Amino acid sequence: NYYGGNWASFSFSGLLSWIKENQEKTDINDECEDWRKLILENEEVISLSKKVKTIQHVEDFCFVDQDSTEDVEEAGALPKLPVFEASGAEGVAQESEKECPPVECALQEAESSELEKAAGTEPASATEGKDTEVTSENESSQRTALGKSTLELGKTEAAPSETSAQEPKKITYSQIVREGRRFNIDLVSKLLYSRGLLIDLLIKSNVSRYAEFKNATRILAFRGGKVEQVPCSRADVFNSRQLTMVEKRMLMKFLTFCLDYEQHPDEYQDYENSSFAQFLSTQKLTPSLQHFILHSIAMVSETDCSTLEGLQATKKFLQCLGRYGNTPFLFPLYGQGEIPQCFCRLCAVFGGIYCLRHSVQCLVVDKESGRCKAIVDHFGQRISANYFIVEDSYLSESVCTNVSYRQISRAVLITDQSVLNTDSEQQVSILTVPPVDLGKPAVCVIELCSSTMTCMKDTYLVHLTCPSTKTAREDLEPVVQKLFNLNTEKGKKTENEELEKPRVLWAVYFNMRDSSGIDKNSYGGLPSNVYVCSGPDSALGNDCAVKQAEAIFEEMFPAEEFCPPPPNPEDIIYDEDEIAPEETGLSNSPETKPEFSSEESSSRGSTAVQKEDKEK
């Protein structure tokens, strides 16, 4: 019913519908009985699953008054994600104009950004916090030379909050429902490493022009029952009041070593078979520095991570610093669910067709060749196919008998204030809470403010994630209780006059299947031209998904470039004979391929893409 599968994001009412759907676990039964007549004697079928089994143990809780919510409706409630029944740029432009949520395109040309800054104006999208433009390294160096902060579309730092030292505003459930469209709640919680594979792919493919990003503003640590800010950059280290001068020198010396640790194998080769935590204990580092490095910089397990893995993770963190801000991470405005839709938009511009609410009954396999030659949909229509790419959750139990899945524990909270209050309310924070018991996983906490366009004003959206050992609630509720106040009444200050914990207004817990890392041979009896991709993994970044997509593409089209830069609209020519099948909608013929030329362009092809670009 929506784009992205388990990568999707929802408005508040959309999430409530998703929760209800997964709690009821109803079977999908809209099968057409006549479809078997379409199967020939030399063909056999592989049925697909009719149950969604990737989500389990869904529990939601409200900690505010619900009495007056019966007649409350979401303001301006419209379907968040439309069905794209038209192909090409015209269809995308028309649908997005009518129904799509506003995804502002902040990724403008460098020249226009400079003109805006010189004129003293700011882009309309940069109303709160700091929004970031993702562009290539060459453009970055040019902008730095112009005296512009690297790769930023414009800064309007949020003014210090007048109420930050006061009590947070009282938020009711009816307000949350009424402002439900302000929420964009991700099913999977991730950040983008500034030098990660996904950022490189967004830049190379020019998909980045469909999205807008915000810097993660701070890295936090949980130590001794307190939340503290971790100094990351050189400036942060030397400005920190938490560290002594000796600790600052220790930390800088160790981080400098990590940046080129391969050049000094004698420093770590005796500890290659030890854990990273054991290696840190042999270095000249205080316990607090070891904690910061292990849990907030390398972000690795205390017991399961080897020394080499820890050094690699620390180096990756340090290499990503400074490209777009003081932390290594970016977050897409309107949520992680925007990223799949951005790729959908570019694909649709070049003729891709998307059909939501259109399920597949089975695969049709040729007995002689063993290849999948068609699919049958729930209308009983047979559609020919040269390739079939399917997400793991659609496969039936008979295909997945030898597959062993991991699980991810997830929690999403709406809170009334930040876990660490500062002068600015508009903070995007990442916090790793180490496990109480050795052997248990650490919990990754990502806190989003309203300027990320994921929650309403005066609230925060908090995501908690860890590999599952039990149900999501059993895994994550102890961490929630450490960081937040779950009482319906406001908490009081402690005897030490510490600030009260943020109050949870609403929460949901659920377990999500982690199907990453499963070999294709584990799926029994699949044809060679059927490709299986996994759902989200438990890692903080997106490298697993990018590697998987590239591997499948290269297997299908070994001579083609993966996600090449798109041509300029004026360079596109469509042959008249290739345009004709598109006008009839769905077609069984091979996909239309545009030809590119710098001398002439078809008015139809270029007009469609130019219209798309203008509207964006």
From TrEMBL:
Top-rank taxon: Eukaryota
Keywords in alphabetical order: Cytoplasm, GTPase activation, Transferase
GO cellular component: cytosol; nucleus; Rab-protein geranylgeranyltransferase complex
Compositionally biased residues, Polar residues: 135-144
Region (Disordered): 109-168, 563-616
Acidic residues bias: start-end ranges: 572-581
GO molecular function, a single term: transferase activity
Family: Belongs to the Rab GDI family.
Official protein name in the record: RAE2 geranylgeranyltransferase
Organism encoding this protein: Stercorarius parasiticus (Parasitic jaeger)
Gene, per the UniProt record: Chml
